[in-house]
């Protein structure tokens, strides 16, 4: 595997909400029993998120926030159906993905028409024609561009998309591949006090990330994806899930996830690094998908990393929340922008329970 990143970009919705305000909004969804609003606020504080973007937020004109898509739980209005949420997804996903992809193309200093392959990724919505075709139109990509969509993989979806992109580049050294991930997690906010829904409401957000890459060359100084591994943890299928319900997509999220990741991670790191003569001590920077603060703490403790190495992951979580598959591209963008040292190990975890790891050199 030898895939160089020529350019990278990201985009968030125009408006965001402070986490304290998001906790109050969640209370209006009936996420707290009467009298338990302070406990709900504590859950939101413990995420260590400052603000999150959502395509559903509207400008009230007074510097605050407003959304009209989800009615308060106390009203007689019906909960938005999955069909309603998918119509909103079809309207909002394309322009957000286009902003991230346009930034990546500009950063790569390539012409949009030079892109030969387009790999898109999303787990928060479906439509056909999809946002991949919309990108062809809005970015001015060639109508002969080869399109592949990676769908419903969860938070590690960008790793699957990068694996596809690297395969295309390996098959054709002249290929220029655009990867675009977009997630509109806020479309799937859930009503009621079910623990999984309450936690998901507290951490997930909207965002898009994109990279442009090609087969690596010796003269490249660019970040180069040199290895990837994937592992489905045994007896873990019930720990995390993402299913389509009548009222949006519903998350299953066990509190045992961080511990399962922590106990498995040292072996997986050895599998990724040892064949290349590396160890954890040789890793110069880290891009860890921030599924939540407990996931980051589990990774840190299991690998003995201390507090500093996960700073970029923590800062993306604080600034934007968990944007599912797009999040890792935000972290990589900050690492590349800040001139982080290499080798870098990136990782994310999703339904399965699946761990995806990648090595950048």
Written account of the structure:
- This protein has helices spanning 19-28, 37-46, 82-108, 131-139, 157-171, 195-203, 257-273, 293-303, 311-320, 327-337; strands spanning 3-11, 16-18, 51-53, 117-122, 146-151, 177-184, 206-215, 224-232, 240-245, 248-253, 285-288, 344-350, 354-360.
- The chain is an alpha+beta fold and 361 residues long.
- It has a domain at 224-360: 3-Layer(aba) Sandwich (Peroxisomal Thiolase, Chain A, domain 1), CATH 3.40.47.
- The longest helix has 27 residues, at 82-108.
- It is globular, with a radius of gyration of 20 Å.
Number of E strands: 13
State mean pLDDT (0 to 100 scale): 94
Distance between the termini: 11 Å
Backbone structural class: alpha+beta
Strand content: 15-25%
User: If strands are numbered along the chain, what order do they take across the biggest sheet?
Assistant: 5-4-6-7-1-8-13-12-11
CATH superfamily of the domain at 224-360: Thiolase/Chalcone synthase
Q: Could you estimate the helical fraction of the residues in percent? A: 25-40%
User: What is the approximate shape?
Assistant: globular
TL;DR?
This protein has 361 residues and is of the alpha+beta class.
């Amino acid at each position: 595997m030898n895939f160089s990143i020529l350019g990278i970009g990201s985009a968030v919705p125009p408006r965001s909400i402070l986490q304290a305000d998001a906790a109050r909004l969640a209370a209006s969804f009936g996420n707290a029993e009467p009298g338990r609003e302070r406990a709900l606020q504590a859950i939101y504080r413990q995420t260590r998120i400052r603000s999150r973007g959502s395509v559903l937020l509207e400008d009230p004109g007074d510097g605050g926030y407003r959304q009209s898509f989800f009615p308060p739980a106390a009203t007689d209005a019906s909960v938005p159906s999955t069909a309603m949420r998918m119509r909103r997804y079809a309207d909002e996903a394309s322009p957000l993905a286009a902003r991230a992809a346009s930034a990546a193309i500009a950063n790569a200093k390539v012409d949009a028409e030079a892109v030969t392959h387009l790999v898109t990724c999303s787990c928060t919505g479906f439509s056909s024609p999809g946002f991949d075709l919309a990108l062809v139109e809005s970015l001015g990509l060639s109508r002969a561009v080869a399109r592949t969509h990676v769908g419903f993989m969860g938070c590690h979806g960008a790793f699957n998309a990068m694996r596809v992109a690297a395969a295309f580049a390996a098959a054709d050294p002249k290929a220029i591949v655009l990867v675009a991930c977009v997630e509109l997690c806020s479309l799937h906010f859930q009503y009621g006090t079910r623990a999984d829904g309450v936690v998901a409401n507290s951490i997930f957000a909207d965002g898009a990330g994109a990279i442009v890459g090609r087969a690596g060359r010796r003269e490249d100084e660019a970040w180069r994806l040199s290895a990837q591994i994937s592992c489905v943890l045994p007896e873990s299928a019930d720990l995390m899930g993402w299913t389509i319900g009548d009222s949006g997509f519903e998350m299953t999220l066990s509190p045992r996830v961080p511990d399962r990741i922590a106990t498995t991670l040292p072996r997986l790191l050895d599998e990724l690094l040892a064949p290349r003569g590396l160890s954890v001590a040789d890793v110069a920077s880290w891009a860890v998908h921030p599924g939540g603060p407990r996931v980051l703490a589990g990774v840190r403790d299991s690998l003995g990393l201390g507090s500093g190495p996960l700073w970029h992951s923590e800062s993306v979580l604080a600034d934007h929340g968990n944007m599912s598959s797009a999040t890792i591209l935000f972290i990589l963008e900050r690492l590349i922008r800040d001139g982080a040292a290499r080798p870098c190990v990136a990782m994310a975890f999703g339904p399965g329970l699946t761990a995806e790891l990648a090595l950048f050199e």
